[in-house]
Amino acid sequence: MGAMNKVWVMNRHTDSALSDDNLVLKEFPLEEPAPGQIRVKSMYLSLDPTNKVWLAPYFTYVPPLPIGAPMRGFIIGVVDKSNAAGYAAGDHVYGLMTWGEYCNIDPTQTSYMMKLPKDDSVPLETWISALTMNGQTAYYGLLVKGRPKAGETVLISGAAGATGLITGQIAKIAGTRVVGIAGGAEKCRSLVEDYGFDAAIDYKNENVIEAIARTCPNGIDIYFDNIGGEILDAGLTNLAIGARVVICGGIADYGNLGDPSKQHGIKNYFALLMKRATMEGFVIFDFVGSLEHAKCERSLMQWYKEGRLKYRSHVVDGLEKAFPSLSLLFTGGNTGKLIVQISKDVK
Ligand SMILES: NC(=O)c1ccc[n+]([C@@H]2O[C@H](COP(=O)([O-])OP(=O)(O)OC[C@H]3O[C@@H](n4cnc5c(N)ncnc54)[C@H](OP(=O)(O)O)[C@@H]3O)[C@@H](O)[C@H]2O)c1
Predict the structure, then answer these.
(1) For 136-173, what is each residue's pLDDT tens digit?
(2) 325 lines ligand 1 (CB under 6 A)
(3) How far is the CA of 330 from the centre of ligand 1 (A)?
(4) What is the CATH classification number for the domain harbouring 32?
(5) Which member of 8, 11, 56, 294 has the lowest number of beta carbons within 10 Å of its beta carbon?
(6) Distance CA 16, CA 255 (A)
(7) Which ranges constitute the DSSP H helices of the chain?
(8) How many domains does the chain have?
(9) Are 114 and 139 found together in one domain?
């Protein structure tokens, strides 16, 4: 038998709770890349809350995956064979590929693909945890949508996660006062002591509305919301005049995607009127290829090299554990960026 390729494929759609059989791990013969394609050997897979959204049977902000199709995901890997101009074996690439050991892909036909500069001082784990999708999301959401000014107050929900940690540090670089919301005393301690947040709110053990009023006495100028639900509503009670509410994610309700009647919804929306506030959602794909993109990549790298952008990875070992580990994101079981190491043969 020739070489094989293990891949997680769509088995049963869901727009409510995850179950063990939504994805199944299958083995296929390893295929040669077609003309124009590269074959990428996966090193790390990024596990993201939006993977849950991608299991829906209908168009969300991406098309649904057909039954039997490989699960899509953000991969960092090494080009193993190339039939594409501009790519050679050994190049490091990052982009939207599939949950498998190998992926054949035409780099010009995917919405998100970048060749990583060879820089031995930046490990692949750093790229996938801080300098690519999550770092870029933090950058665009905060700086482009939030438009921070020095001295303003930024509130971040889901602050101890992959996106939240980077957002908070960029907000500090922008000269703002930063308050994070996270679950549990240890995550809150770490936000302040390890990542320079000015204050942290433990939503599992505190009254969030009271804690926001206490920690944001002048009101919230930017609310970078990763969570939605009751935590979003709590933040709306203490907006400053002209606040910008940036909707990055709504993980609290990703299990109720198909049934809006079960979603918490926004109850305090009058705050937007009273405080002349705006609320705007965004998706990272909107910015890829934009004029700002090169600046975003340069800034993240510079801040990282200056020691101003720290990250934490939560590494799961082995492709087999990919789908069973996704639920960690929904229980807060992850500490920092959740990634799966698929191959240890990191070059
Ligand atoms: N707009 C975009 O383009 C874009 C791009 C990337 C990510 N996102 C969104 O950003 C958010 C964060 O993603 P991430 O990848 O950085 O994940 P993450 O923050 O590393 O992990 C998710 C965290 O969410 C918290 N959480 C889960 N369920 C919750 C609930 N019901 N109530 C309160 N907190 C809950 C948990 O932290 P605790 O331990 O603190 O509870 C968990 O660790 C997600 O909503 C995601 O969809 C959006």
Answers:
(1) 999 999 999 999 999 999 999 999 999 999 999 999 99
(2) no
(3) 8
(4) 3.90.180.10
(5) 294
(6) 4
(7) 50-53, 124-126, 133-139, 162-173, 185-195, 208-215, 229-236, 270-274, 293-305, 322-326, 328-331
(8) 2
(9) no
